[in-house]
Design brief:
The chain has 105 residues and is α+β, with helices and mostly antiparallel strands. The chain has helices at 3-10, 16-28; strands spanning 32-36, 42-46, 60-65, 71-78, 95-99.
């Protein structure tokens, strides 16, 4: 879900800043993870059980449908290991695949 979608679902119970800070806190605690989008906005999804504060282990591919714009976590498809030059230490890798989802095909 996007920040705006979450805001709409909460109605007027919470203001924009409260929603944003809560989402950031959930990311930091390993409860949700960020999903990049084509338009450089951010969506959020629940983490799996092995994520923890400061350490996300959601090393899966995200699929964005070009027809319906739905973002889907492909939990069984992992981001490939990238061989970095000597002295480089990876912190986070993400992969987004665009195409047509099964429902829109």
């Amino acid at each position: 879900m996007a920040h705006a979608d979450i805001e709409k679902k909460t109605g007027e119970s919470f203001d924009r800043v409260t929603v944003y800070r809560t989402l950031q806190s959930f990311v930091e605690k390993g409860i949700i993870h960020l999903i990049p989008t084509r338009d450089n906005s951010i969506k959020y999804a629940l983490c799996k059980n092995d994520c923890e504060a400061g350490h996300h282990h959601d090393n899966h591919v995200h699929f964005i449908c070009d027809e319906c714009n739905k973002t889907i976590c492909l939990d069984d498809v992992t981001v490939p290991q990238v061989k970095l030059p000597k002295g480089f230490t990876p912190q986070h890798a993400e992969m987004v695949v665009n195409g047509i989802c099964e429902e829109c095909k």
